[in-house]
Amino acid sequence: MDIFDKCKGMVNQVNRAHELGIYPYFTPIESAQDHRVVIDGKEYIMIGSNGYLGLAADPRMKEAAIKAVEKYGVTCSGSRFLNGTLDLHVKLEHDLAEFYEKDGAIVFSTGFQTNLGIVSSLAGKDDILIIDRYDHASIIDGCRLSFGSIKKYRHNDMEELERILKSLPQDNGKMIVVDGVFSMEGDMANLPEIVKLKKKYNTRLLVDDAHGVGVHGEKGQGTVEHFGLMDDVDLIMGTFSKAFASLGGFVVGDMDVITHIKHTARSLIFSASMIPASVACVLKALEIVKKEPERRKRLWEITDRMLKGFAKMGLDTGESNTPVIPVIIGADDACFAFWKALKEKGVFANPVRTPATPPGRALIRTSYMATHTDEDIDTVLQVFEACAKEFGLI
C-alpha cells in the first residue's frame, strides 16, 4: 500500500466542497485584519478574527514594526539558543514577567510551539499530565511529545477531575494543563475549582490563556487575573497572535522553571527566533494594553450585546461568556451552508467541525474586536437572524 493513498479521501472531500461552493478555508484576504476586510474586491464585516483589541491596523503598531526592521533587519537567522537572541527579546521577557508579577518569562516563535515546548520539556516518563478534553491541539500534541502519561477529564467536569487526581500515585509528578478560554466554544475553565483541587492533590497547574490575555481582568492579564488567582497558578502561557496583534507565544512563572524550559524545550532551541518586527509589535501592544483599558471595555460592551442578541433570537451559543461566541448548527454540511449564506450577505465568520468540536456539534465561530462599530453589530445581528430563519434554526 502506498503511504499517499490516504490523501485521496481528503482530496475528494475538498473537491466536493468546492463543487458545492461551500469550501470555507484558506480564503485570501486583501486588506488588514480589521473589523472590515476585503475579499475578492468586496468588503465584509470580519467576525472571524482573534484580534480582540483591534490593533492589527493600528498606526502605532505599524510604526513599531517599521522601526524594528530598519534597525535589526527582517529576521534573526537563528534560534534563541545560539545567535537569534536580540536585546528586544530580552526586554520583552523582562516586561512580560513584570506585567504578570512573576520571576521569569520566555518567548517562543509561535503559540503552538510554546505549548509543545513547555509540556514536553517538563513531563518525564514518571510524570502525569491531566487535561480537559476540549484543550487546544497544541496542548494535546505537547502531551504526545512528552514522555509523561496522559489523563483526560470531561470538559469542565470537576467531579471527574477530582476522581482522576484521587486515583493517581502520590509520589508521581503531576500537572493539570487547561485552557483559560476554550477557543471554539468560548467558555472559561473553572479555575477556582481547579486551583482548589491542585492544592488538595499537590499538583502543578499550567493555564493556556491565549484567548484571555489582553481581554480579561482589570489589567488585561487574562482569566487568571479575572478569577483573582495570580498567586495560585504555576505557569501562565499566552500568545501574541490574538489581542497583541503579532506572532509568537510566551510563558511566565518561577525563574527556575523558566530556566529549565529555556534550556530543554526543543521547539525553542531548534526553531528560528521571533523576528524583530513581531517582537517590537508585542512591546507596543503591551504598552497599549496597560494604557488603554477602554479598548477592553468596548470589547465587552460588544460581547454583551452579541450574547443578548443571539439569545433573544433563540440561537444556541453554548456556555460562552467571552468575545468568542459560537452559534451551534449541528451537521457539518448545514454548518458550511450557513457559513456560505453569511458570506453572501457580507459577513465573514468561521465554520468549525470535528475534530475541533465533537461530532454533530458543528458551529459558526464568531469573535469580536474593540474596533467593531455599532453599525457592524447591527448588520451582523440582522444577517444572523435572516440566515437562522432561512435554515429553520429559529
| Helix-strand topology string | HEEHHEHEHEHEHEHEEHHHHEHEEEH
CATH topology of the largest domain: Aspartate Aminotransferase, domain 2
| CATH class type of the largest domain | Alpha Beta
Q: Provide the residue-averaged pLDDT.
A: 97
The computed structural class is: alpha/beta
Tell me the major beta sheet.
7 strands, mixed
* Strands ordered across the widest β-sheet: 3-9-8-7-6-4-5
Describe what you observe in this structure:
The chain is of the alpha/beta class and about 400 residues long. It has 2 domains: about 15-45 and about 295-390, Aspartate Aminotransferase, domain 1, CATH 3.90.1150.10; about 60-290, Aspartate Aminotransferase, domain 2. About 45% of the residues lie in helices and about 15% in strands. The strands form 3 sheets. The chain has a 7-stranded mixed beta sheet with strand order 3-9-8-7-6-4-5, with helices on both faces. Strand 4 (about 130), helix 5 (about 135-145) and strand 5 (about 150-155) form a beta-alpha-beta unit. The longest helix has 21 residues, at about 295-315. The chain is globular, with a radius of gyration of 21 Å. About 45% of the residues are buried. The model has no long low-confidence stretch (mean pLDDT about 95).
